[in-house]
Amino acid sequence: MKSTFALAIHGGAGTISRDQMTPEKEQAYHAALRQVLEAGHDVLRQGGAALDAVEASVRVLEDSPLFNAGRGAVFTHDGRHEMDAAIMDGRDRSAGAVAGVRNLQNPISVARMVMEKSDHVLLAWPGAEDFAREHNLPTQPDEYFFTQHRHDQLQEALESGGIQLDHSESKKAPQPKKMGTVGAVARDQHGNLAAATSTGGMTNKRYSRIGDSPIIGAGTFADNRTCAISCTGSGEYFMRAVAAYDVACLIEYRGLSLAEACRIVVHDKLEPVGGEGGLIAVDGAGNLALPFNSSGMYRGTITSESPLFTAIYEDK
Fold it and tell me: Which parts of the chain are coiled coil (predicted)?
């Protein structure tokens, strides 16, 4: 069914099992996802741009401590928060991104400013922060990004000597493993598409590691001729597969439907080589696809033709 406008969001994918989730926490995630969808929906139903809708949605995700982006970002090996984000406009494929930024409240808004107020696509720390301050975008002290849960994850990762993809399995107490990335894709009433992605990366990451989220074509992509995509999962695999752009290519060059193109990338290409995770997608007709090859993905949708919907597990 074609929709006048459509919005899909995600808050990360991975090994998310019911027996590791309390009813209270599950309710909190659903409430947060609803709040995100309402922010984007308010833009779209009033005739606003897809670009504004995805930014508004991701800002709410970044402001929530439940998700690994912005305020809820995980800790690096050095006890810092290094965040990545990207945004792309399907009208002309203009894009902006930031990588490794530390004290910016909403990296997605900085990424948009890079797209609109600079001659560049991707800026990295520390220059990206200088750019943000020059444009009066809000910053926060380290304490703003501190959550006890994320700090505990870092201590466990330091003890084991490994890295964790957000809620990785703990030897002390098994926890759901969630790939910590958030994102949104939208089609507005004017037929334009946009995508936005933001992340805090991996717990205990070192050496200024950067994942797929800020890489245009890997974790984020938008083109009115095909689709808008935001990915979440094991970033190194999504980068090698150029996953987001591959979906668009399957639509453009092979004439596949959005659903089939997404299925091929997530299940036939990524999954066999160990690329765990998923993506959200929308095409020019307002069709949505939210495939994932893990046991769960925090996700939600709303369109001009269908009510607000949120889900966590494969069976909702």
Answer: none
Q: Which two tokens stand for residue 56?
A: 């508004």
Say if CB 308 and CB 39 are below 8 A apart: no
- Cβ atoms of 230 and 279 within 8 Å: the answer is yes
* pTM flag (> 0.90): yes
**Rounded to whole angstroms, how far apart are CA atoms 191 and 287?**
12
pLDDT tens per residue, range 236-267: 999 999 999 999 999 999 999 999 999 999 99
Query: Which of 15, 76, 181, 301 is an active site residue?
Result: 181
Q: Which CATH class is domain 6-313?
A: alpha beta
Show contacts of 19-26: CB within 8 Å, 24+ apart.
20/174, 20/175, 20/176, 21/176, 21/312, 26/312
Judge whether 113 and 96 are in contact, CB under 8 Å.
Answer: yes
Name the band, by pLDDT with cuts 50, 70 and 90, for residue 90.
Answer: very high
Is 232 designated active site?
A: no
For the chain, give every domain's residue range.
6-313
